[in-house]
Amino acid sequence: MPKFAILLFLPFFTIGILSTNAQIASSSNTSGDNDTSSFVQIIKADIFRRIKQDSTAELNLLIGNVLMKQNNTLFYCDSAIQNQTDNQFEAFGNIHINDSDSVHTYSQYLKYIGDTKIAELKKKVRLTDGKGVLTTEALSYNVNTRVGTYLNGGKVVNGESVLTSKEGIYEAITRDVYFKTNVKLVDPEYRMTTDTLLYNVNTEVATFLAPTIITDDHSRIKTRAGFYDLKFGKAQFENRPIIEDSTQMVVSDMIDYNKATSQGKAVGNVVYTDSSQGLAIVSGLAIFNNQTKAVLAYEHPVMKIKQSSDTLFVAADTLYSEYDKRDSISELKKSDTTRLFRANYNVRMFSDSIQGKCDSLYYSGIDSVFRFFYAPVIWSQENQLSGDTIFLFTKYKKPDRVTIQENSFSINRTAEGMFNQLKGNSMNGFFVGGEIDYLKTKGNSESFYYLQDKDSAYIGVSYAMADVIAMKFQKKELKRVTWINSVTGTLYPYNQIPEDKKELRNFKWLDALRPKKKEDLIQHSTLP
């Protein structure tokens, strides 16, 4: 009889003489079936004893350096009790499950059911695939599907990222971890909180399945769906996400974001705001930088600039805004809190005091000047100003003065629908209370205006040419005209004005192009 077989029948107190390297040929399969793949086999133990539980069941007692096996799964522990009939065992102390040498699980207690291949682990449970480490106090692990589940708190550490939740499911084959309830991710660069999250240990991609908040030292992101690539800092946020910091906020249907460059692409019903500058932009598409606070808006963009008493709206095919980094006018200091903006193609502007259109517009808060290029026109009350280039100077966010370069033309519409006109090579004007107070032209100047008697009845029309012509307005009406140098002109009685003399050359009343209200600029969205 073999030596090992003899030892099995020795009294328990003599079993201690077994070598620590003793090999045990398990007879766990008592059915006689030659296929032992579903049964847990005993490979070795320092001490082995078989205990008869009843007439039909026996228990194997294993102590010291225990090793058992089922298919490609190895079980190590300090001690174990095996039930051969039920094909299950309990293990105690320094447990290590080596699942096909790809997943390793550790704990201090294990109950394993061989038929279902379910392992119930407790006390200091740790599961690792060589990259991420899952720790918890209780884990149910399916060796067959390689899926681990915890229900009372767990933590996954992957590099410097730490994910915790009350519940979790780990899938070793795909390396996905499904976190549920009180989910928190802590990384050296950001924090994330949510109720449901899917995380892949291999790709380090977090997929949002519930409302989620991501914060760092400078900004906060709110989203309901999408994903975040923690390895490369790239993300896609969906279902009206919000990215905000102390002054800036972006909201849209979807946002693609790159944390490394701080640049994002917002798509669908975009709302961009800068509270420090009182600026908001709505559009269908926008490219923005969360660090430099630059934004480029497309697809029917409209910009709102909040002012003390007269909010300004600007629409164009494209709008761009950023902080102006130039030296200030005095060149004494640099500004990083003043915005500039550019509008290109089909530009329209509206405020209660002034409206405008052009093909290109530039403005900087440093000098507070609106620069209109390419067929610009601006309207103020019943006045229309046009030319090749218009510079509108503002003061305290209100129109202060205007300069028109080349082909300047002013039209003042009377209450009766007639047009007083002034044109010249260049023109300068001044505003009082948001209304035109004074205009002066230089070079090839011409004027055409209707004469009134002391009772404000129209009595005729004056046409004149001079080097310099100035017009003074009061309460929206023309009150005085002054001509300087080389003055020539003609007076016509009111009822004898020739039809070809009622308009100066290049006269164009463009009121049909004038924005009458802010809604004329807003096509698809509503500004906040």
Describe the protein's architecture and organization:
The protein has 528 residues and is an all-beta fold. Among the domains are: 21-145, Sandwich (lipopolysaccharide transport protein A fold), CATH 2.60.450.10; 344-528, Lipopolysaccharide (LPS) transport protein A like domain (lipopolysaccharide transport protein A fold, Sandwich). The protein is 1% helix and 60% strand. The protein has one helix and 40 strands. The chain has a 40-stranded antiparallel beta sheet that branches. Strand 16 (212-215) and strand 17 form a beta hairpin.
Overall shape: it is: rod-shaped
DSSP summary: helix tally: 1
Percent of residues in helical segments? under 10%
Largest sheet: number of strands, sense, barrel closure: 40 strands, antiparallel
Within CATH, the superfamily of the domain at 344-528 carries the name: Lipopolysaccharide (LPS) transport protein A like domain
Give me the Rg, rounded. 41 Å
> In whole angstroms, how far apart are the ends?
92 Å
Q: Tally of extended strands? A: 40
Structural class: mainly beta
Whole-number mean pLDDT: 85
Oligomer: single chain
Which CATH architecture of the domain at 344-528 is right?
A: Sandwich
CATH topology of the domain at 344-528: lipopolysaccharide transport protein A fold
% residues in beta strands: over 45%
Poorly predicted segments: 1-22, 25-35, 327-335
CATH hierarchy class name of the domain at 344-528? Mainly Beta
